[in-house]
Design brief:
The chain has 336 residues and is an alpha/beta fold. Helix content is 35%, strand content 15%.
């Protein structure tokens, strides 16, 4: 037998449930991990070398796995999907599922589920915080205060910055998170435009047919689009140039959507005014130039890290799994 001895977890004396096992492919919150272990036999392979560890499982264990639980950034390639003959579901905790080889899953008839909208409010809160911080220059002003440049003298202040009232906010990706951002932006009396693959018929916001047109129009570009091969580096040097010297970019989606090298260059050359970032292209590695720049407000991917969002995402993950094993419709399936 060629089984990874640390991979399969069973409670002592537990009879394996007939529905099959759940493979855990990512590090999950402890409450969710415990809930999964209480419901199903689990095969815990939360490891960077997922494909290799799946390959090393014995055929019997591979044949037990009917569902994978993961997060969007973890790769679930065709090699993993094809190695699990009974696999019927890949379930991602969170809204993203960019790591899943969707084509391979569809070809095998494997459903994909996620936690659509569960963290939308929490991410929108962080998005608005970053927007305010970069537009109003919180990083620059905090550095001045810490460096002793300000002594309460009005003349020591820098020239006033634009406020948010009347600001033209361009939202790239008007999905669940984008809509939550738009609702909050309306409370600040911002003008709102957006770019989607298709115009929405249920909103009055201005639709732009291209990302370039949106960037030329807006004062601040908010990235809330889903990560995919089609959106990788969509915000490149040309989009940043269109945003302009007074423009700001905020990214709470995935780091891959921005060409990070182009962003560093745009900031260094004054092509744009600032950036608010909660996600990065090669997490957890962040370019030192971004961290050191006071015009950049950078956070360690905390958008969905509120207590409420975490509880909602975990509950939806369990609901998707429970429905799958009962033969019911998935509450939050990724549309075909």
């Amino acid at each position: 037998m060629n089984e990874d001895p640390a991979s399969t977890q069973r409670r002592p004396g537990r009879v394996q449930a007939p529905q099959g096992a759940v493979l855990i492919a990512a590090s999950l919150p402890a409450p969710l991990h415990s809930a999964l272990a209480a419901r199903y036999p689990i095969v815990d392979l939360a490891d960077a070398a997922l494909a290799e560890r799946v390959r090393k499982l014995d055929a019997a264990t591979r044949g037990e796995v009917r569902a994978i639980v993961s997060i969007g950034s973890v790769a679930i390639p065709a090699a993993v999907i094809d190695a699990l003959p009974a696999l019927g579901l890949v379930c991602c905790m969170g809204s993203g599922y960019e790591g899943v080889d969707v084509a391979a899953a569809r070809a095998r008839g494997v459903a994909i589920a996620h936690s659509a909208g569960a963290n939308a409010a929490a991410v929108a809160e962080v998005a608005m915080g970053l927007l305010i911080a970069t537009v109003r220059g919180f990083g620059v002003e905090a550095d001045r205060l810490a460096g002793g440049e300000w002594r309460g003298n009005a003349h020591a202040r820098r020239p006033p910055r634009p406020g948010l009232r009347g600001l033209r906010l361009g939202i790239y990706g008007l999905g669940a998170i984008g809509m939550e951002i738009a609702r909050r932006a309306q409370a600040f009396d911002m003008a709102i435009g957006y770019h989607n693959r298709r115009a929405r018929t249920d909103v009055a916001f201005r639709h732009f047919a291209s990302l370039a047109a949106l960037a030329e129009w807006c004062d601040a570009l908010m990235i809330s689009v889903r990560a995919s091969p089609a959106t990788r580096h969509a915000v490149d040097a040309s989009i940043l140039a269109a945003l302009g010297v007074d423009g700001h970019v905020v990214n709470i989606a995935r780091g891959s959507v921005i060409d990070e090298a182009a962003l560093v260059d745009a900031l260094q050359r004054g092509v744009i005014a600032g950036a608010g970032l909660d996600v990065f292209e090669h997490e957890p590695d962040v370019p030192a130039a971004l961290v050191a720049d006071p015009r950049v407000v950078a956070l360690p991917h905390i958008g969905g890290a509120s207590r409420e969002a975490q509880a909602a995402m975990q509950a939806m993950t369990l609901a998707n799994l429970d429905a799958f094993f009962r033969g019911q419709a998935l509450p939050s399936a990724v549309p075909a």
